[in-house]
């Protein structure tokens, strides 16, 4: 089941691969659209703000020119002459005419304003505002020809004021001053223009003076923009500019332009979300649609997994069980679709295979048992004939004790070898058989000696019958007996990493390296006339019983200078598997 999940993930991956480029392309187009809108918005807001600046500037300049017009008016000149002549009657008449001219000039402007004429010689102020009085401190604190901001008071709103001396350079020469013309306009004129501007443009706008006063379209909103105005003054404003910033937690686009005559700035900002809202809404709708498509795709993929891939995975799992030899495995799950027919046929196939495998396995076991018994029966029968001949010779010579010992060992030897019905034995029984065989051979060939060095903890281990004696017989017949002089056969036992190893060494004639290599190859081939029967039998039996790694190893003996034949098989369960760490026990 786990191996089928990556396919399910791959299907989902294909769905994502199809949708992700679409989302990326749409995001790119959406971002490009936002950038184009931002650039157009910046150009539009800048042009609108400059237009508002030009309107304010033209009205201010028009009011500034009104003082020049009044300075050249004949009524003002007649008033100067009446003052010089001290013609008080004419003076009053000309003051009325000047006041009328001030009203006419005031009404010619689009802005509400206040025009005044200061006459220092008679300490008089002629104004369009009723109840005005002559205040010499105003003349002392004001500059010539400069618009100055006045914060006003509780009774009077803030206003801008400009005074012009006549003659123009007579401010520092009080005796030569003919008159001082004053022009005032209230901040409400600017508020009205801001209101008109805001009705035609989204966002917020206000006028900010150099001293930090802020005036919006209504006086109630001035406090809302005061903090923003202070931060802008702290940053420093130069000329016309714009940038993005955060106001009240929202991203806004802010632009500003100076009003040079007033020493102030027009500031306008608009939340970006007002321009981005349609694009953001369409983008969010697209993303939601893509999410719905992904979910539907995953649902379709899951249905495909549930009704197609999962049944196939179940079949694959069943095949894997058959592969590891579990032919009793059956599929019990039902999918209520066309795959149920395949599940039934799979179970039928499993029953047939299990039946056939059981029959073949039983036949193989019977064949292997027959083969093992046949290999056991192939032990050289000439040994018995030689022993009987030796006993007959001893009887002629009257060696009764030798005959007795020979009969005892020969009886023990054949009592063990002829028990073919029982294939199980212990290493103790195998060593007893080897001892009987070697002792019999020492009677027949007195120059032969032997030692058996097997630890006691190994003697109880279960082993196959007749696997050591053929190796010992091979060492005697082909190693020690052909070589003149004394001969020695040593049988040693040890355990090594889960394996039991019996080593049979002799001091015989030995073999060349080339002959040893050829013999190793013959042990793996089917038995032929050239192959030695004893070692081949033992090697094949060990391989059949214990599998890969078990068998016979042939090499030269480093200690006895003859041959060393090692038998290797897996230590069977139930045996003491503790490796040797002490001196071996000598059986004999």
Overview of the molecule:
With 588 residues, the protein is an alpha+beta fold. Among the domains are: 132 residues, Beta-Lactamase; 50 residues; 136 residues, Histidine kinase-like ATPase, C-terminal domain (Heat Shock Protein 90, 2-Layer Sandwich), CATH 3.30.565.10. The strands form four sheets. Strands 2-1-5-4-3 form a five-stranded antiparallel beta sheet. Helix 10 runs antiparallel to helix 11. The C terminus is likely disordered.
CATH architecture of the domain at 420-429 and 445-570: 2-Layer Sandwich
For the largest beta-sheet, the strand count, sense and barrel status come to: 5 strands, antiparallel
Find the structural class using helix and strand composition.
alpha+beta
Helix content: 40-55%
- The poorly predicted ranges are 577-588
Mean pLDDT: 81
Summarize the structure.
The chain has 14 helices and 17 strands.
Summary tags:
single chain, 588 residues, alpha+beta, Heat Shock Protein 90, five-stranded antiparallel β-sheet, 14 helices, rod-shaped
SSE layout and pairing:
Blueprint: H1 5-71, H2 74-85, H3 88-107, E1 113-119, E2 124-127, H4 136-141, E3 148-150, E4 159-166, E5 179-186, H5 188-200, E6 204-209, E7 214-215, H6 222-235, E8 241-247, E9 250-259, E10 264-271, H7 272-323, H8 339-377, H9 382-397, H10 400-417, E11 424-426, H11 427-444, E12 448-453, E13 462-464, H12 469-480, E14 487-496, E15 499-506, H13 513-524, H14 533-546, E16 551-556, E17 563-570
Parallel strand pairs: 12-14
Antiparallel strand pairs: 1-2, 1-5, 3-4, 4-5, 6-7, 6-10, 8-9, 9-10, 11-13, 14-15, 15-17, 16-17
């Amino acid at each position: 089941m786990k191996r089928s999940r990556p396919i399910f993930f791959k299907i989902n991956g294909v769905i994502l691969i199809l949708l992700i480029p679409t989302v990326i392309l749409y995001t790119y187009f959406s971002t490009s659209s936002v950038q184009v809108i931002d650039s157009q918005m910046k150009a539009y807001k800048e042009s609108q703000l400059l237009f508002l600046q030009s309107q304010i500037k033209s009205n201010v300049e028009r009011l500034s020119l009104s003082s020049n017009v009044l300075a050249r008016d004949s009524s003002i000149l007649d008033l100067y002459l009446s003052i010089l002549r001290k013609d008080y009657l004419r003076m009053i008449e000309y003051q009325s005419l000047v006041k009328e001219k001030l009203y006419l000039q005031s009404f010619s402007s689009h802005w509400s304003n206040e025009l005044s004429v200061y006459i220092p010689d008679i300490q008089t102020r002629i104004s369009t505002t009723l109840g005005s009085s002559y205040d010499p401190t105003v003349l002392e604190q004001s500059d010539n020809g400069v618009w100055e901001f006045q914060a006003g008071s509780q009774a009077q709103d803030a206003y801008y004021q400009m005074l012009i001396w006549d003659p123009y350079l007579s401010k520092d020469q009080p005796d030569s001053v003919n008159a001082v013309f004053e022009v005032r306009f209230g901040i409400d004129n600017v508020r009205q223009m801001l209101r008109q501007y805001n009705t035609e443009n989204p966002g917020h706008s206000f006028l900010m003076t150099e001293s930090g006063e802020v005036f919006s379209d209504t006086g109630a909103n001035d406090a809302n923009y005061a903090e923003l105005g202070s931060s802008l003054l702290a940053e420093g404003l130069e000329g016309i500019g714009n940038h993005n910033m955060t106001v009240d937690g929202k991203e806004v686009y802010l632009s500003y332009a100076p009003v040079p005559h007033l020493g102030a700035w027009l500031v306008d900002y608009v939340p970006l979300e007002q321009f981005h809202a349609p694009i953001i809404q369409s983008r969010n709708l697209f993303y939601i649609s893509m999410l719905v498509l992904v979910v539907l795709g995953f649902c379709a993929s899951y249905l495909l997994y549930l009704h197609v891939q999962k049944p196939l995975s179940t079949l694959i799992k069943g095949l894997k069980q058959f592969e590891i030899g579990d032919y009793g495995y059956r599929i019990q799950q039902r999918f209520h679709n066309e795959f149920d027919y395949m599940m039934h046929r799979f179970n039928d196939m499993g029953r047939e295979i299990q039946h056939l495998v059981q029959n073949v396995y039983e036949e193989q076991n019977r064949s292997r048992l027959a083969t093992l018994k046949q290999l056991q029966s192939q032990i050289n029968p000439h040994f018995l004939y030689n022993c009987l001949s030796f006993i007959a010779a001893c009887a002629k010579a009257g060696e009764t004790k030798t005959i007795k010992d020979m009969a005892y060992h020969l009886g023990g030897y054949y009592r063990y070898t002829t028990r073919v019905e029982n294939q199980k034995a212990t290493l103790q029984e195998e060593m007893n058989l080897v001892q009987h065989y070697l002792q019999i051979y020492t009677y027949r060939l007195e120059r032969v000696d032997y030692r058996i060095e097997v630890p006691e903890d190994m003697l109880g281990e279960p082993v196959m019958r007749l696997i050591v004696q053929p190796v010992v017989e091979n060492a005697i017949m082909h190693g020690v007996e052909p070589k003149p002089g004394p001969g020695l056969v040593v049988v040693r036992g040890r355990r090594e990493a889960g394996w039991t190893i019996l080593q049979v060494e002799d001091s015989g004639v030995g073999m060349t390296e080339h002959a040893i290599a050829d013999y190793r190859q013959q042990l793996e081939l089917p038995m032929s006339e050239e192959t030695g029967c004893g070692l081949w039998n033992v090697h094949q039996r060990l391989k059949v019983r214990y599998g890969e790694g078990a068998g016979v190893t042939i090499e030269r003996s480093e200690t006895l200078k003859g041959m060393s034949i090692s038998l290797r098989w897996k230590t069977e369960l139930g045996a003491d598997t503790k490796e040797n760490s002490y001196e071996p026990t000598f059986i004999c």
